[in-house]
Records
---
Amino acid sequence: MRAGTGAARLAMVEDNSARLFDRIGHFLAEHGLSPDPRHYAFAYRVCSDAAGPLAQAVASLTDGGIRLSSRDIEALGGEIGALSVAAPTENAVQKADGLVAQTQMQVDGFTDMMHAIRAETQDFGRDLAASADAIRESRDTVGVDEVVRLTGMMLGRVRNAENKLEEATHEATVLRAKLEEARDNARRDPLTDLPNRRAFEEAYAAQAASGARLCVAVCDVDHFKMVNDRFGHAVGDRVLKAIGEALIKACGGQMVARYGGEEFAVLFSGVDLQVARATLEEARGSVAAKRYRLRESDEPLGAVTFSAGLTEASCEEMLGTAFARADRLLYAAKHAGRNQVQTANS
């Protein structure tokens, strides 16, 4: 009996573990989170205590099909990494670091080469001076012949060094171009080709330091999870590209970035809140007016809309402060019915 009871308990534990694993996997997929250890740890805390305060807070934040954002998870005490779309960016950063190392090696090679040329030149100078002294003392052609020989040797060395320098210069030019490309890729979203979160943060810091008038908008696609669930992620990706293009078209001259998942951010510089809102409303109306169809079957996808929160930002405040304010306005727009822009002054 005891053996049977132990086996039954073991089976029950294994079944509960499998169910918990399935719930964690569903949670990660539902919120577009990659299964790295930090995401998994947060999902475990939520799924292992479905009635606990953390799970209830998550349920409240995601009511109505809203995905968790990285800021939500951080606010709930989770150490979160980037969303799954950030993996290519991390690879791009690693690639850039590798190219920086290659470039440093190239610079070191230049330095070693110049030291070698300097040493050979110094040796040539000493030998030439000695030959000149010999010419003055002997007054015959022996010293002249030696000078000619030394000069010929030095010219050969110089030509060899010039060839090496030319090759090294070409390699450095190629590396520089690759480095610039890698740096750009590290700041660009691979799906929409828009600047990413890192680029947005850097742009905000630069604009704030210049004293420019700033407004920050956070835009989120309405019911995006339903689009993915019903039509698949490939269609969802096309929707994200279309909204990114609409924002770029309406917000010409301003920075539009994909901040993560279905979330976009716009940095308005040199315009007031009214102009920024009118610009954002133009983009929102343009997106809402379109009627998308599936490329494969021509089946209507229906209306796609986005909600947005928009706020002025003072040059003295950190991006996180202004962004959190815009994010609260975004949630207000969601709860007020979606497909709208909510604004507030700093």
Note: The CA atoms of residues 115 and 121 lie 10 Å apart.
---
Amino acid sequence: MSGIYIHIPFCRQACHYCDFHFSTNLLNKTEMVQAIVRELHERKDYFQNKTVETIYFGGGTPSLLSDNELSLILDAVFQIYKVDTQAEITIECNPEDLNSLKLEFLKSKGINRLSIGIQTFDNTILKYLNRVHDSEQAVNAVKIAQSLGFVNITVDLMYALPYSNLGILQKDLETAVSLNVPHISAYCFTLEEKTAFGKMVKQIKLLKNEDIVEQEHYELLRKYLEINGYEQYEISNYAREGQYSRHNSAYWFGKHYLGIGPGAHSFNGIERQWNISNNPLYIQKVLKGDKAFETETLSPADKFNEGILTQLRTKWGVNAELLKVSSNADLFKIKHNEILKLKTSGLINQTETHLYLTEKGKLLADGIVTELMV
């Protein structure tokens, strides 16, 4: 399986919780689209005639692309690469960008999965997050998409948000579930020092949620979604009836993917590549035909660590046998002491071939991953 990730660095406004924002007023979208199309052509041999099974427009706000701009990119993908007729084609979008005309166009271009960034249905917190949409727009966006035949929809939520509480989170979950979407992604709010929220914490204008608050919100989220038929197949992702994100699942299982656009990463099983993050420099280099990415050949240790990092967060756990094939390292032997300690602490379960996080372990996943790396 192979997939294409197309990073679109356009945002309508700077968000308090994100340090990666580019106003469309300050960025030449035409040149960026030209560069993305040019890079698609330049990387045409990356998959060596493999069929592309997933296409993902993400990062920033791809729904800010005009119909013509999105067509230029998608048409290039289909012209250059062999795309499966049943490919999963996803676009990340904001509720305020979705109306009947926009959605009908997306559907006409073969886009069959929407990832809608709602974050919360609480209007007060939405304003505080500097989001343009309100709760009514969020609900209507989902309903309009469903009325036009979009079935594969994921709603993105955040928990442990500043000034939120368990009551607000409960209402968010009730609203999301009532929309009957097959997939919900839920991410813990985190602070970065350079963002507006990070600076506000330093100035004591905003109190950071303590770990206990994050744990309480996470437990409510997990239990409520489970009761309502959503399976937690990855720490931050919940799906009904096995309707997993095929694109994200490919990342977690080490499938090959090609990243297009500034800051995008690629992986072919042997090398990892990452594009220049600086937008003007990316555009300049690509349009000149210069190399706009760096490459790193993965060592056995890199492959081992990557397997731990990506697989342990999933319901399928780490497959020690496959990890040994790719990295020539026996997880159960070289990490015997660490595994024993984690099992004794009730953080992981072990079978003859796999390691899994327990419910308790999911709360400490990052630390557990670090312990198991070489």
Note: The chain has two domains: 2-251, 300-372.
---
Amino acid sequence: MKIVVPFAAGATPDIVARLIADRLHNTLDRTFIVENKPGASGNTGSDAVVKAAPDGSTIGVSIGGPLAINTLLFGKLPYDPRKDLTLITLLVTQPSVLAVNAGLSVDTTRAWIDLIRRNPGKYALARSAPAISHLVMEASRSKAARNWCTCPTPHLRER
């Protein structure tokens, strides 16, 4: 049995997949191999699950990016998550946290936004690949702090 993770080893979906593989092994007395297939913001591994033989020997563990968000971010996916995949269960939930360097001396979102507005182009945003947290930060940047500096994200299309 194979569990495909569309992200690199050590990412949250990988950790979850390895915990599940161990539990399934103990419960079903079968070997489960976790195979990481990172690339294209999770699309590569998700496509591998779609293209696997429909014999039940391959399952995927993913996050919302390749299953929902990427349908909005990419012009064309090699798969349609609504038609090509069947979601079985929600495995975990993970909070999103906004963190800043303590030296900034801001302790609320409002103070942080005000600081960015007072200093156009001074601050940069670090974030992971497209995910809910990425979209929240892009929405915040667009709505509240239009003048902060951010790394270019060429795969995001302006709407």
Note: The chain has two domains: 2-84, 95-159.
---
Amino acid sequence: MAPVKPSFAVVTVSYAPDFERCKLLAESTEKCLSDNTKHYIIVDRKDLFLFNSLQSLKVKILTVEDILPWWIFRIPLFSKGWISLRTLPIRNWVLQQLVKLSAVNVIDEDILVFCDSDVTFIRPFDVASVLLKEECLALLRVDFQSQDILKWANAAKQLLGIPDKNVPVVNYVGNLIAWRRENILKLHSRLEEVNRTHWIQAVCKHWNISEYMIYGMMVEHVLGIENAGHFIATPELIKSAWAFPLDNQKNIDNFFGTVQESHIGVMIHSKYKVPVESYRYKFDLLWQQNC
């Protein structure tokens, strides 16, 4: 009897300032994602009226407030974070990570694939064929190190109860990151076992954390890669603009000239503050060629 194929969901956490980029991503999921894969976009309830326009048979809009526990909430005129009745106020950077770690509370698919709103897909693809090898799921490792990665790794070790010795620092942060639902639930339990408190309270004790580092280290150093149903992968599925100046049209054209057939998407970070209309036509051309 053939094994049952796992179900996939693409998950994006976004907010109003990123709406135009997220709108472009949603358009690309309509064109490029296979019909059996849903795209969930998670936003603050105050932004729901704006993002509801993106909802379709393939794209579903969820709210942060429906995912996190009742004791975490926003108050008017406090834009830098969220109030928590069990921890210090939670800054937006950390809250976004808590949302990803909590998404299994409302998303039922077996595998959650996290994709930021500054990514746009450029060709049709099946998520399973891109991220699964036999029955194992790709665990992305990225060949990049920084002081932030070191800080995030140290926080993950403490949270997960992993001894420092003989544990190399590996970077699991990137675009299109896939997690198994069962491993996320095991991660919650591990955090509570090690820290003797609710897992959200444990995470909120750290200022510098990365959800991708926590999950990656859980898989590799607690569960074991094979036992967790993963394999190590290093492909560049999403072409990133990190190394390119995008301050004029010529540089934008040069960047898009580096996109290869192996890439299924492109990432132009919101920090560049490049208006979507300055490169939108590039995606229209790629969709005409590929879709």
Note: The mean pLDDT is 93.
